[in-house]
Amino acid sequence: MLKIDSHTHTLPKKMPNWSEKFGYGDFIYLQHHKKGAAKMMRGNQFFREIQENTWNAELRIKEYEKFNTQVQVVCTIPVMFSYWAKPLDCLSLSQFLNDHIAKLVAKYPRNYVGLGTVPMQDAELAVKELERIKKTGLRGIQIGSNINDENLNEEKFMPIFQACEKLSLAVMVHPWNMMGQQKMQRYWLPWLVGMPAETSRAICSMIFGGVFERFPKLRVMFAHAGGSFLPTIGRIAHGFACRPDLVAIDNNVDPRNYLGKFWVDSVTHDPMMLEYVLKLQGSRRVMLGSDYPFPLGDLEIGKFIEEMSLSKKVKEDIFFRSVLEWLDIDEKKIISQKKKR
Ligand SMILES: [Zn+2]
Q1: Alpha helices, DSSP H only, in the chain?
Q2: Pairing relation of β-strands 28-34 and 37-42?
Q3: How far is the CA of 75 from the centre of ligand 1 (A)?
Q4: N or C terminus of the chain: which is more exposed, having fewer CB within 10 Å?
């Protein structure tokens, strides 16, 4: 069965030292301190160690083929977004990352599909970059769950969503810059508590702000199975019904109406939760995702889904149909490519 992984991250092995180049700011740079690993440094602070499989395209293929996966959708690591930087600098950084992914996809068209990044802090520049990446063959963009702490329903972001709809570029919303992280440094809480909350914040902002009403053809996917949104949909829908004066002020459509309209990945680490997500979303709006190559991801790439007693049709939806529809890729084209492998 064709398996496409909708959620993976990559970086080029070498990047300029942006802080030196631009003369300010704690941009991420890579310190290749030993063979096969590098430290991601934010200013002088250690952020995270990454391994060779973050940048080595062929090693990645070897690793994901072990789990019968044939294609990875790749995007950058959210900490690279740099929405806080001067817009033109963020554009130049984004273009560097986008060109790296476009080259990767051009070299391995059967193995990788690419998503770009854009300077969300400046809609005009972002739209220009969307038009450019469309021509390079990228299928969409990855954006943060908030933009410099502003929610995704802010009017200033609308031209970007409008352009994605017009250009038929998919949007992946990834949690980052987690709310409250200063107050919960211990126990990896920004990742375990902050990230699911961030994703729900993004979904609720887009629903209540009427973004899906304004752009009905916009195809949006939310990482980590939509974070805490689906598990708390009862509370959210009840809040909408009991306090419309607080919730339904910009959009009077019941939040449950949006279930099955946007996409989510399968990163739940829990078959029971995935069953629930499937019930709410329908199998055509749930897609295989791993968050490869990071340890909090599903690094067996959907093995738990293969072991679940789901019908062949539902598994096919999760493994490839949903993601192809999200990326606007013709199923027949990819299947015939697979046969040529
Ligand atoms: Zn991720």
Answers
A1: 18-22, 57-65, 87-107, 123-136, 158-167, 189, 195-208, 211-214, 233-242, 244-247, 271-281, 303-306, 312-316, 322-327, 331-339
A2: antiparallel
A3: 9
A4: C
Q: What's the distance, CA 173 to chain centroid?
A: 5
Residue with tokens 């994605």, as numbered in its chain? 164
Q: Quick one: tokens of 123? A: 């809609």
Query: Rounded to whole angstroms, how far apart are CA atoms 36 and 33?
Result: 9
Q: What gap in Å lies between CA 266 and CA 319, rounded to an integer? A: 10
Q: How far is the CA of 245 from the centre of ligand 1 (A)?
A: 35
Domains defined along the chain, listed by start: 4-8+58-339 (3.20.20.140)
Distance 248 CA to ligand 1 centre (A): 31
Average pLDDT, the chain: 96
Residue with tokens 């200013």: 43
Neighbouring residues of 185: CB distance < 8 A, sequence distance ≥ 6: none
Cα 293 to averaged position of ligand 1 atoms, centre (Å): 9
Q: How many angstroms does the Cα of residue 107 sit away from the middle of ligand 1? A: 23
pLDDT number for residue 332: 79
Strand partners, 264: 222, 286
| pLDDT at residue 111 in the model | 96
Per-residue pLDDT, 334: 73
- DSSP string for 239-289: HHHH-HHHHTTS--S-GGGGTTTSEEE-TTS-HHHHHHHHHHH-GGGEE--
HSE-up of 87 (CA within 13 Å, CB side)? Answer: 11
Cα(193) to centroid of ligand 1, in Å?
A: 15
Task: Identify the three-state secondary structure at position 299.
Answer: coil
What is the pLDDT at residue 308?
Answer: 98
CA–CA distance, 184 with 195 (Å, rounded to integer): 12
Low-confidence ranges of the chain (pLDDT < 70): 335-341
